[in-house]
Amino acid sequence: MTTNGSSPISIDRDVVFGQGGGLDLRLDVYRPPAGGEKRTAVIQLHGGGFRRGSKDSLIANCRLFAERGYVALASQYRLLDQGRWPAQIEDVKAAIRWTRTNAASLNVDPDKIAVAGYSAGGFLALAAAGAPDDPALEGSGGNAGVSSAVSACIAFYPGGGRSLREEGASETETDLMRFVKAGCPPTILLHSTGDTTVPFEASVGLFNALRAAGVAVELHLFDGLSHVFDRHPEFAAPAVEVCDLFLDRHVVKPRVYPPFVAGVARPG
Amino acid sequence: MSGNGSVRAEKDVVFATAGGIDLKLDVFRPPAGVAEKGVAIIELFGGGFVRGSKAGHYEGVFQRFAERGYVAIAATYRLAAEAKWPAQVEDAKAAVRWVRENAGRLGADPEKTVLSGYSAGGQLAIVAAGTAAPEERVAAIIAYYPSRFGRSADGKDFPVMPEGASDAEYEAAEPLTYMRPGFPPTIFFCGTNDIFAEPTKRLFEALQEAGVPAELHLLAGLPHIYDRFPEFAAVSTELCDLFIDRYVVNPREYPAFRPPQPAAAPS
What we know:
By secondary structure, chain A is of the alpha/beta class. Chain A has seven helices and nine strands. Chain A has a nine-stranded mixed β-sheet, with helices on both faces. In chain A, helix 5 links the parallel strand 7 and strand 8. The model of chain A is unreliable at 1-5 (pLDDT under 50). Chain B contains seven helices and eight strands, in the order E-E-E-H-E-H-H-E-H-E-H-E-H-E-H. Chain B is α/β, with parallel strands linked by helices. At the A-B interface, helix 6, strand 9 and helix 7 of A face helix 6, strand 8 and helix 7 of B.
């Protein structure tokens, strides 16, 4: 365990949460400062087109989530050279099951586990959210029989299906729309309009489909920035803040906001 | 006034007289010690053009902009009982002209004037910007859940419209009419439970198609005037600040994303 002098977040690195394709799968746990715990876990999934990347790219955002009271878990999953689809989603589900199994020691409510993914990780987050406890995708990475359902989904510029298809996955398997259905957990999508790696229209399409399915869904389209817009800290901060507000009202303390009634005295 | 912190407020400045009515605005200047951005943001309240006042949209919003270095200006415009459309547009433009003419004493650059509005005020901001003469031009728009209107199902005119208004007059009051090349960069906000959520999304999409910088924030499950709930107000102002800062205060571009090379990736 390490602590940062300026921030009382504690980090456990390289905790083995399961096995996939004969490999030990690891995650890093970022625990919030004492006193502000929201008892909600956010499993973070890195990008890299399923061909590269590592949980180390999640350090900055995991810190931001932990500072806001969440237990952030930066999870590994097998890349395409370590296993073809659905190895990636199997590993994500193993991470969810491990988190639920270890909820007490993580100081989170086992019914308050969210996923957050970036680019290819966003694809995985949406897949995990839309296909809970799906025998075809659960894999055998550990904690069999524990639910892999999540309470909310955060997807930053989700994409990457093409890499999966290049390695033999079918069009149907990699169509994110197949994971959109009534009953999906509340979902927040964040994208930038200057993204040429994954065009923002993909997130607009997901927003429209989730909304049509009656799912609570939120959309943030930042203008003019390219892929991975949150690598700029001035954008990561408000992006994580809107995620926090979203998780807080949908998962941490579920609540609804009353409609506006014209003519009634305004607060403040 | 109380609760004002160190933001310096100047109230009820007459910026124009129209139809025998003095039109007034309030100026909120950044506190001493805050880096001034040299940008004035004119704020237009909501209320369906039949109610509301410049004091009505949560004074906190003016404080927050001033605390971030902007000169926030809460301007009034005539309501339906005082004058019919397009008097409201004329009043909004008069406010823009006044701010541009008085930019020097406000500590602002006239070419960096921003127009912002809430609900009816958002619609007004868009129509005013879309029909601006050179001396009424603005550098960017902030549109919170901008309204739109038409005749009622049984053919009655919308309250602010003159009786028997033509289709062309309604079209001229429709924000979508102005989403075309040359429109100022615009940031949109709306709750998904707001009747203006889909229209707001259409405005954003039309601006993107026109090649105009446009940003969209649709917040899940929130009703009309979602920012009356304080927890959403602060981040909304922060997002406005980021947008205005990079398009108006210090225009800049962000570098394109380049995937890290495998050799350089950490082990």
